[in-house]
């Protein structure tokens, strides 16, 4: 199976052929994947070099001319380094763009902490009007990329990862899916966390909701699920733990509830290791999740 990022350039290259309004802006990273597209569309595939603030500024400028920019680099360079440009060049100017990241929270451990961005979604949460997609499979990434490009002039973030579930689901860019029904609590699995959550909750009488679009948060789906399964909610997210606890709490504000946010911890892991080792160190493997979810639900 190809990775989400391997799917990204071919899909967006086809979109460039189909839609003359679309442009791609790169900061050196990923340029080889667009070499052929750049030959076909030299004025709509732009590489600004290793200048991430300019990356966002150029994307915003293209948006203000009426184009639909797709802007790509590693998450730490796309959200964290040029955050002021996200806030002002896009947000303050009310300009839209599709930001597509790679490397996720720790997809390239050998790159060190400079190439890790577990806080990217939480940081975007401080800004208004962003849609955030977190696909869990390359097929879902393709679907959500097309949704993002077609979303008028909205500000959209698509978070790609090397971690992926075994199978794709029919995502629509808005609603959560009920993957398993139970009567003792609801576990919300975000993107590539679904397989681990399903393995961890095997034998537990819990509902599992699958979210690949986390902003706007599907409050209606959570309320429906808790109506049948009770109001204990566990959020399992592939980025900073607790990122969506406020959104879940707001969805259930009128009923007594408990929310547990699981995800990447704040403590920096200072050894490179592997992706699997980072997953385990943050307690996001199936075995650790089984205990953490089971203890929480049992303590109701």
UniProtKB/TrEMBL annotation:
<dbReference type="Pfam" id="PF02779">
    <property type="entry name" value="Transket_pyr"/>
</dbReference>
<dbReference type="InterPro" id="IPR005475">
    <property type="entry name" value="Transketolase-like_Pyr-bd"/>
</dbReference>
<dbReference type="InterPro" id="IPR051157">
    <property type="entry name" value="PDH/Transketolase"/>
</dbReference>
<dbReference type="GO" id="GO:0000287">
    <property type="term" value="F:magnesium ion binding"/>
</dbReference>
<dbReference type="InterPro" id="IPR029061">
    <property type="entry name" value="THDP-binding"/>
</dbReference>
<protein>
    <submittedName>
        <fullName>Transketolase</fullName>
    </submittedName>
</protein>
<dbReference type="InterPro" id="IPR009014">
    <property type="entry name" value="Transketo_C/PFOR_II"/>
</dbReference>
<feature type="domain" description="Transketolase-like pyrimidine-binding">
    <location>
        <begin position="2"/>
        <end position="167"/>
    </location>
</feature>
